[in-house]
């Protein structure tokens, strides 16, 4: 058994309206059933007319590019300097929504295909219907990734095979069940295609031979590769998520319970602010039910959902500025509690004491 | 031109102390100069004795695993449930530090090689010195990644070729210079190797033939692929970075200037808290130099670095609890300013007014 990776040479420049199936079949009369075609998304975009006119240079070019990027963006994921990592309308997370200025006139930008899975299906169907070839098609593009330098080619669209090869449920020779081994084989195939494309000039299509038996249609396509942001541990850039945390601190809602806060977590929150609050300020966590019930009885507006009480005592003597500072320190503690996942509500102090405050948690 | 990907079959089970060069050369007498060997890290680990004994099941197994993971971890990047994404001592960011329980007895765990680049160099040197073979060696492992479902194989170590192929400075046929095209070809080679390894049972080594001309030693190895956390837009998980923002809000340092704050950003911060502060609270941004100078003269402790002033006016009448609430609201505004990148210092109010506060920004 072996795989071969072959370049399709001689396709030449692709322009709007070109018939990719004819170009590829003409350049590679040696194609066989079961081959996997790895097609650079750029020629798909060009054939489909996914080009926009832009000024060749100057601020007008940058403005036009920004407008186009906004159109191609479903959600901004991270920004640093002029780099913008976005989620496209397809769901792919990539720099500049995959908009590309290379291998095109200086007055045009190339956008990603509108529906790369559909592009792959159409090309597969055209090769089958008009040339009698039963092949799988991958539409590929070059992407960066977190944590690792260098780019790799991955799949934007696929037809004729599933995007993922699922080993779950298989058992290794030692009897261990394989739990998480879903391999993104179309990404590996796209990368394998890049190896030969990158070695040659102007080779937008590679063929992987020997991988597939008989192609089969798979409705899900490369959408199977898109992880929903809600499931992703890295749905936002670090800086953006940090800012989200600061904004959350600015707008902390009143929230308590329903589960009693872990006393160790409350201690961590109190410790976190110990060095920044006014000297002499003391925060005390009251967890004992009876004490808390007694205190709660003295606190107007005590929320029924509260499962604990944090008492703050300001240093005395107090003037109005000290009380403002004390309030700021209580809010610091609320942010520290929120960092531990503990909601809180600022209440008037028990017994109306000027030098104290109460947080229901 | 074409590439071939060939499986090395018949290597069998690898155990501590095994001579990988002998096993591979014996199983693949057809190896040639210029071949790229993609070697699954697990057999490298096993040969190098990177195995640890653990209980076969129960809480003791989990405890042991946690201890081992802590040892293999340089930095925790993200956690959700039992999933822990960490940066290893090599710098790789991966789930569970690459610790693996598959393809090994139930009472052992396999750790990553201590230095996969060194492992690759040693294997390359052994094949050259003892078998006269001039090949490149990639030590590969399977990893997940943000944003995309499915795993791919990538390189942990490499010898005999650079990890990255640099197209920067090249010019495309349209005259556009290629700026950012550094391809992580060893990751694509590792993925290509996985395609054949995943199709066969128990094939821990694949050979990519036709990619390299003559191997050459490269000192940097796969370390070239490790992006420093300080350069990474995704150095922390979204949840972890959000918590970091909350912690930052809890401990906001006194900081002002040196550049005047963008008035639009200050307005955004004031707007962000408008709905959550006590009704009637008013925040005003004072930017005019003379007004500011006059106000600053009335504010004790006004920092020389301050380039603006935010005045807060609490609703009147005030009792002590209202002042505490007002202080909490001022701290909310400080967090909102920090989210805009604007530092601030809480000062006593100008003229000692009980119902006001001043923030130097």
Note the main attributes of this structure:
homodimer; 361 residues; alpha+beta; 60s Ribosomal Protein L30, Chain: A; NADH Oxidase; 2 domains; five-stranded mixed beta sheet; four-stranded antiparallel beta sheet; 9 helices; 16 strands; elongated
CATH topology of the largest domain in chain A: 60s Ribosomal Protein L30, Chain: A
Strand content of chain A: 15-25%
Multimer state? homodimer
- The CATH architecture of the largest domain in chain A is 2-Layer Sandwich
Largest sheet of chain A: 5 strands, mixed
Most extensive contact: A-B, 119 and 120 residues
Mean pLDDT of chain A: 92
How many domains of chain A? 2
**Cα-atom Rg of chain A, whole angstroms?**
30 Å
Widest β-sheet, arrangement of strands of chain A: 1-12-2-8-9
Short description:
Chain A is an alpha+beta fold and 361 residues long.
Structure description:
The structure is a homodimer of 361-residue chains. Chain A has 361 residues and is α+β, with helices and mostly antiparallel strands. Chain A is 32% helix and 21% strand. Chain A is built from nine helices and 16 strands. The first copy, chain A, is elongated. The termini of chain A are far apart. Chains A, B: GO terms for molecular function: coenzyme F420-0:L-glutamate ligase activity; coenzyme F420-1:gamma-L-glutamate ligase activity. Chains A, B: This is Coenzyme F420-0:L-glutamate ligase/coenzyme F420-1:gamma-L-glutamate ligase. Chains A, B: Its EC number is 6.3.2.31, 6.3.2.34.
